[in-house]
Amino acid sequence: MRTYPLKAEQVPEFLNGATTLRIPVRPQPKWEEQPELWNGAWCGRYRYLRRTNENDNDVASDTDRVVCPYPVGSELALTETWGMGWLDPFMPATVCYKADNCLAGMQWRPAITMPAAFSRFKRLVTDVNVEHREIWEWVLALEEYLEREDK
After folding, report:
1. Position 94 in a domain
2. What's the distance, CA 69 to chain centroid?
3. In the chain, N or C: fewer CB atoms in 10 Å?
């Protein structure tokens, strides 16, 4: 299972049941000349952003193609700012999430350091699209993922 660190403003959205995740395309394509020639295409379960010519033929250069790192069927653990704390001195430490404001004076750790096992948002990628607003973004459609016990 791969992890993706959420920004602080994204956590409340997922607490309220968000089903999409927007991720910036990296690297951003150099599209200033003709933005209408960039579009999304599929290759198996992978979505990629490609540059085409005027006849909608794929341009074969690797510099003109960016593949989404999260294909359909990927299992994602969305991580957030977290810490380990003791709610009761006689119990083992527990995972605390900054969005819950569970303990005052907690030493918070960045989302990128959270192990997948501590994530409370486990999702399955069901669809991938690419959109351009101010920048190119992958738009992942997600559904709740329940881990199988036979793994």
Report:
1. yes
2. 9
3. C
Q: What percentage of the chain carries pLDDT values higher than 70?
A: 73
- Number of structural domains, the chain? 1
Q: Is residue 56 part of a domain?
A: yes
- Short-list 114, 89, 117, 116, CA closest to 103: 89
In a domain, 121, yes or no: yes
Provide the 3-class DSSP secondary structure of residue 92.
coil
Percent of the chain residues topping a pLDDT of 90 = 35
Residue 106 near residue 40 (C-beta atoms within 8 A): no
DSSP 3-state percent helix, strand, coil across the chain (nearest 5): 15, 40, 45
Structural contact between residues 59 and 50, judged by C-beta atoms closer than 8 angstroms = yes
Is residue 79 a contact partner of residue 4, using CB atoms and an 8 Å limit?
Answer: yes
pLDDT tens per residue across span 25-35: 887 776 555 55
149 in any annotated domain:
no
DSSP string, 44-80: TTEEEEEEB-TT-PBP--GGGEEE-SS-TT-EEEEE-
Two tokens, residue 27: 């690297």
Containing structural domain, residue 138 = 2-144
